[in-house]
Amino acid sequence: MKTKLTKKFWVALTLFSLIGQIAWVVENMYLNVFMYKMFHATAGDISAMVAASAVAATLTTVLIGALSDKIGRRKIFICGGYILWGISILGFTLLREDLIHAAFPMAASVSAIGITLVIVLDCVMTFFGSTANDAAFNAWLTDSTDATNRGAAEGINAMMPLVAILAVFGGFMAFDLDQASSWTAIFAIIGGVVTIIGVLGFFLIKDPALPKMEEGYFSTVIHGFRPATIKANAALYLSLIAFILFNISIQIFMPYLILYYEVSLGMTDYVFVMAPAIILASVATALWGKVYDRRGFGFSVLWSLIALAAGYVLLYFFRHTALVFAGSLLMMCGYLCGMAVFGARIRDLTPEGKAGRFQGVRIFSQVLIPGVVGPFIGKTVLANAEMIVNNDGTKSFVPNENIFLAALAVIAVLAVLLACVRKAGAKKERAQ
Predict the structure, then answer these.
(1) What distance lies between CA 19 and its chain's CA centroid?
(2) How many domains does the chain have?
(3) Mean of the per-residue pLDDT values for the chain?
(4) Which of 82-96, 153-167, 253-267, 352-366 has the highest mean pLDDT?
């Protein structure tokens, strides 16, 4: 029988997932735009920022996830983390050329100082964000659901990145992103909202009852990386390997997606093109979690990857607005439905009562390895990209469609891996 979740749970899930994803969207899709427009960042600068943030997110999730298991609390890390996350986002309001020049009057390049400060503050922001969201919130979600309702909950959780993109796209329409004052307002609004949600969490979130942990803290930290743990949870780690490939594919193009629309395609109105695609993909993702509950991992992941690959093909070959819309819709459906499927699968295979310590392992497959490898592949693909001269005489690169071809190649490797695992599983069942 399906376990019924409370209304307060659904409110907390929706609010914390949505606001957390809005903050991540600003970081993952617009912080590079901020560096590009304000400090003329290169593809190498963007790759370095994504990689540094991935390392910060992974270390934080490993350490804080284990700590939340050790003390048996999630709520304090979620709420306190969101409050400090919001404050760190407010810190970006100080990253303006005039303030940087005043602080470093002898600096040869304000842009170089600005890029360095963005990367450093991004890592600080990631520490608090990963504490709150990656480590504590994700562990809380696993603890608060079971196999009868996890797909439905994960469907809501997985659709939030698209809802967040829609909210950010719509909200950013009111701002001229070429103006420093616009970025100051954006960071002030996002930082304020994240902080407020952290305060509300003290009234909304219920700490799940967790078993007392007898292991020491260090033992808890390394638990998910022990050979014995891997051997005892082989299905979980195979799913994590597949998740690595999935996220590498996403990270090849995602850091450059907005720049591709705006700079390469000249779509100054890309928000109007993307909004319907985002709405439709969000609905599909919410429903796809229920498909996972009914049909299982094999069926649901297959069609997610087919949609993702089809979107890549359209985005690689075509530049016409209608076909870019179709490609973006398929890509987003495949991306978010895939995230829902992999997320539910990993939660189902996570040992009960140990969700916190396994968040570190999950973040390796979702953030660290993809966050380093994916942007590096993207940077390599764009090594000979066209350059344009800005109004101030500086040069900027122009992302091209090759990022989608590279992303498609990784999905092909993933498809082969999943087919081999499925064949090996079927062979093992026949032998038994």
Answers:
(1) 13
(2) 1
(3) 86
(4) 82-96
DSSP string, 379-401: HHHTTT--EEE-TTS-EEE---T
Identify the CA nearest to 25 among candidates 135, 167, 219, 200. 167
2 belongs to a structural domain: no
- Which positions ≥6 away from 1 have C-beta within 8 Å? 148
In angstroms, the Cα distances linking 158 to 16, 211, 370 are 12, 28, 18
In a domain, 125, yes or no: yes
**DSSP label of 93:** G
Residue 51 lies in a domain: yes
Classified as helix, coil or strand, 351 is: coil
Distance CA 304, CA 60 (A): 30
Per DSSP, 320 falls in state S
> Does some domain include residue 1?
no
Task: Encode pLDDT of 160-211 as tens digits.
Answer: 877 887 788 788 888 888 898 999 999 999 999 999 999 999 999 988 777 6
Q: What is the reported pLDDT for 160?
A: 84
**CA–CA distance from 122 to each of 44, 58, 397 (Å)?**
16, 14, 22
Kindly list the distances between the CA atom of residue 84 and the CA atoms of 13, 117, 206, 350, in Å, as whole numbers in the listed order: 19, 18, 20, 29
396 forms beta bridges with: 388
Where in the sequence is the domain holding 149, given as residue range(s)? 7-431
Within 10 A of 213 (CB to CB), how many other CB atoms are there? 19
Please state, in angstroms and as integers, the Cα–Cα distance from residue 92 to each residue in 81, 88, 131, 134, following that order: 17, 7, 19, 21
Contact (CB, 8 A) for 172 and 25: no
280-303 per-position pLDDT tens digit: 887 887 788 778 878 888 899 999
Instruction: Give the separation between CA 257 and CA 279, rounded to whole angstroms.
Output: 18
Residue 195 CB neighbour total at 10 angstroms: 18
Tell me the three state secondary structure of residue 291.
Answer: helix
User: 42 burial class (0-12, 13-18, 19+ CB within 10 angstroms)?
Assistant: middle
In one-letter notation, the amino acid at residue 322 is: A
Q: What is the CATH number of the domain that holds 418?
A: 1.20.1250.20
> Model pTM greater than 0.70?
yes
